Each structure stands twice: as C-alpha cells, then as structure tokens.
C-alpha cells in the first residue's frame, strides 16, 4: 500500500466532513492506469478519519449530506451517521475507513494497491 497526500491539514476543521478525491497510478498487467478514489475525511478533536463511501450492504456509493450530517445510499435506502454508524436500512456494518496520518501539514490516507 501507499500513503497518499489528499488535503492540506488547514483545510478541514474539527467536526467537519469533507469529500476528497485523489488519483493513484496502479499497475494492471503490463499497463499502468490512473484510478481516482474518493474518501470522506472527518476531523475530530484528536484525529482525522477517512471513510470509504462504499456502502457495506451491496457496494453502492453513499453520499454525505452536510445539512443532515448523514450519509445516504441511493440503492436501498441505507443511512449512516457522520461517524459512519448505521442509522437505518439494510447495511450490516458501519462504513469502512482507511488509516490516516498528518505529516508536514498534509493529511495522508493509506490505500492498499
Ligand atoms: Fe447501500 Fe444496499 S447498497 S443500502
């Protein structure tokens, strides 16, 4: 896996959730291809969590609505709270998240390749 810088640390405040996209070059057989990934960063007083927007039900992509502080899944009505916990609908587990770290003023997310 690799650590990827996704956002300057100063661009996210405590209790804020922010969608960020980043591109990684992945070897695919003889070719290298660029994949774009999206994660939702949420900053807490003591840490930053990077939520994977893949619904834990059947893999649709959830969307965060800041005014409701909830993630909504368009496929079967799954709802997650701002901490990734299931609020309602069929998802069996909270949203997955990736390891993060802050270094040199940047937020890094760890991706398996
Ligand atoms: Fe998200 Fe079914 S895939 S609720």
Question: How would you characterize this protein structure?
Answer:
It is a single chain. The protein is mostly beta strands and 113 residues long. Helix content is 0%, strand content 53%. It contains no helices and 11 strands. The protein has strands at 2-8, 17-28, 31-43, 48-51, 63-65, 70-72, 79-81, 86-88, 97-98, 100-103, 106-111. The strands form 3 sheets. The chain has a 4-stranded antiparallel β-sheet with strand order 2-3-4-9, with no helix packed on it. The chain is flat. The chain starts with a strand and ends with a strand. The mean pLDDT is 95. The structure holds FE2/S2 (inorganic) cluster (FES).
Break the fold down into its secondary structure elements and pairings:
Elements: E1 2-8, E2 17-28, E3 31-43, E4 48-51, E5 63-65, E6 70-72, E7 79-81, E8 86-88, E9 97-98, E10 100-103, E11 106-111
The chain binds FE2/S2 (inorganic) cluster.
Distance between the termini: 5 Å
Biggest sheet strand order reads 2-3-4-9
Q: Which ions and ligands are bound to the chains?
A: FE2/S2 (inorganic) cluster
Radius of gyration: 15 Å
Element-level helix/strand string:
EEEEEEEEEEE
Give the strand tally: 11
Beta fraction: over 45%
Number of H/I helices: 0
Give the biggest beta sheet: 4 strands, antiparallel
Helix content: under 10%
Structural class: mainly beta
Form type: flat
- Overall pLDDT confidence: 95
Low-confidence stretches: none
């Amino acid at each position: 896996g690799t650590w990827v810088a996704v956002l300057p640390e100063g661009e996210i405040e405590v209790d804020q959730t922010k969608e960020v996209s980043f591109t990684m070059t992945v070897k695919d057989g003889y070719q290298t291809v660029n994949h774009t990934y999206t994660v939702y960063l949420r900053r807490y007083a003591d840490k930053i969590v990077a939520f994977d927007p893949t619904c834990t039900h059947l893999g649709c992509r959830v969307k965060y609505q800041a005014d409701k502080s909830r993630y909504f899944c368009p496929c079967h009505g799954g709802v997650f709270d701002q901490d990734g916990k299931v609020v309602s609908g069929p998802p069996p587990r909270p949203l997955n998240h990736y390891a993060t770290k802050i270094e040199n003023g940047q937020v890094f997310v760890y991706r398996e390749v």
